[in-house]
Amino acid sequence: MARFCEQCGAAQTEGDRFCDKCGHAASGGGKLPVSVLSPSRARGPRSNLSLFLVIGLIAVLLAGGGIAIWQLWPKGISTAVQTPTPSISSPTPSPPPLPTTTVPPNAEGLLYAADFSQPEKEMALGWPNTTEGTDLRVFREGRFIIQREQSGGSTCGPDQEYSDCTVELVAQPMEGGTQCYFGLYWRFLDESNYYEFTVQNGYWQFSKIVNGEWTDLSGWRKNQAIPIGARPSRILVTCQQDRFSFALNDVWLGEFTDASFDHGLIGVIGGASTNERIAVAFDSLRLWENGQGPTLPTPYTQGIGLLFAADFSSPDQVWTEGSFDDGAYQRENGVYRIRVTKPNWAECEPIGDLLRDFTVELEAEAAAGQPSFHYGLYFRRVDKENCYSFTVDNQGQYALYKLEQGIWTPIIDWNRSMAVRTEGGVNRLRVTCQGNRIVLMVNGHLLQEIQNDSFPAGDIAMTVGTWDQTGVEASFRSLQVWSVDAALAMTVEPLQPQLIFSEDFSQPKIEWFDGHANDNPDYYLHLEEGGYFLTIGGRGTWIVNQIGGEFPVDCTAELQASILVGDPNDIFALLVRYQDENNYLGLMVNSAGTYDFLRCVDGELTNLAGPAHSSELRTGTASNRLKVICQGNRFQFFVNDQSLGEVTDDTFPQGQVTFAARRLGTDFLHVRYESIKIWAMP
């Protein structure tokens, strides 16, 4: 098949990378989101670290006037968020450039300085001034401008080689919005061999080309220090033999080692990841001998107080959006949602702040009716193969795992806790890291505190993961990060249940039955000041007092009552998930100090806990307070605010709350109900 150059239309020889006539590079490349497998429950939540990678970078060197200029394949990241693109000829007002380090022209250690205020001087050193065509490189009002109207990148710089040095670049995107990228290249030998550092729409990347083969050395990494839109950035790169350190706007980004090149040219990059017009303004480029110029900030330095607060509605914060092969990301009405559509998989979204000691709190929920899955936090995330994971599932369990060199290991394996709210409930996860100390909390309740030295620092990310079933989604409502000192000074306020029904019978909220039940003289119910009284004359009789109405599946019910007259074996009970008089769960006690937690199915009783004696139960005619907390298939029961136990049972997924009594002895039974309360779990 015949091939033709996209630039000049000349016929091309099959296999050639460049046009024989005009030297135009072949087009191609792009970015794909990459995911990582997520484990089965036995191995813990796996990580999909959705990073944007650049592929297919090929270059051609055009020599002329001592200047290095080449074309790059499309690269970078792409999101659904678009920012205004002011015209370069009539730019809209923008913030002033960041202040650069002031250095006298002959300052000790200064190797090179360009502020672009003297175009003739810079052009003599190799900078171009191309004012025609679609790929412009021009001096304008004390700045050097790169403007393109097609995908790919343009690079320019002085015709001078350097080895170990510190480089400072101040630049500002002017047009192109999220599609515009810019940065530095260094140790450039030819179009097939060099390093580069670029930023784009809140992300940064360190990469290299060796013999024409492009290699991503860092992955696209988000960082809150990178401005969004047409705002300036100050990039610092230190090159010391095979070690490279990066900072942006006085925030340390990372350090890497690579020994591919030891010297070469240095210059600037401006480009577009799509065929949209972009423009980048460069304010200054300076080089120093190491130790003589500006110093990079200390790694993981941070302030005091609130360090970061996610705002899922703000255009000034970058959050992944869109649908991909394995999941989808969406922010709407101040809520961020992550959906996973692949089994044994996890998706994650980092915040882009590197921290050592901190407290992070995440508020999230899983909608009801979904398969079992997990969601929560990655923290001290070094890269896609190294991090801690603190997650909860929608069945009321939590776990702490670590991912080290791509292998998941449980630190705290899946463990059930009443503090974890099940499907439909909002969970507030909190992690405090201080040195090797890690403290885990859910909804204001301390879960566990451990020590682990695997990862001293790293990023934080939200995550959602699946096991065997797919199509799950979690909604993230807020994420905040504090310094440890500030967080320890804060009062932890657990989310409180909401009282939805309360009756003390002094001023009845509903109409309670008063009289002989079913016109039977053996059963008598009477409402008077101080309580609701029940008298049973028939032996073995079971009287249920129904409240009526619909109550949440997850709720707390509390009954205060006493047996005034009766046999020690007579009982009163708090019933939950009540279907009818033959189908329910219930906590039952007698005046002798014995309790049971029973299940009744079609009239057949099964003891789930007990019978057992408890010293917490008051005997005789004393009043006792019964409480049952219902969360999914878990039931925790109390008497007089002391826990008696916890059971799990899937028989009745929903039902009413009510109370009852039964005469088992020879004498008549007389019970006083003093109050009944019901709370919805948050």
Q: Report the CATH superfamily of the largest domain.
A: Exo-inulinase, domain 1
Find the CATH topology of the largest domain: Jelly Rolls
Instruction: Count all strands and give the number.
Output: 52
Helix/strand-derived category reads: mainly beta
Spatial gap, N to C terminus? 66 Å
Key phrases:
disordered N terminus, Jelly Rolls, 52% strand, 9-stranded antiparallel beta sheet, elongated, 2% helix, mainly beta, single chain
Overview of this protein structure:
The chain is 2% helix and 52% strand. It is elongated, with a radius of gyration of 34 Å.
Map the helices and strands.
Blueprint: E1 3-4, E2 11-12, E3 30-34, E4 51-55, E5 61-64, E6 67-70, E7 110-114, H1 119-124, E8 135-140, E9 143-148, E10 152-156, E11 161-162, E12 165-175, E13 180-190, E14 193-200, E15 203-210, E16 213-216, E17 221-222, E18 233-240, E19 243-248, E20 251-257, E21 264-272, E22 278-288, E23 306-309, E24 322-323, E25 327-332, E26 335-340, E27 346-350, E28 358-366, E29 373-383, E30 386-393, E31 397-404, E32 407-416, E33 426-434, E34 437-442, E35 445-451, E36 459-466, E37 472-482, H2 484-489, E38 498-503, E39 515-516, E40 523-528, E41 531-536, E42 542-546, E43 555-565, E44 571-580, E45 583-590, E46 594-601, E47 604-613, E48 624-631, E49 634-639, E50 642-648, E51 656-662, E52 669-680
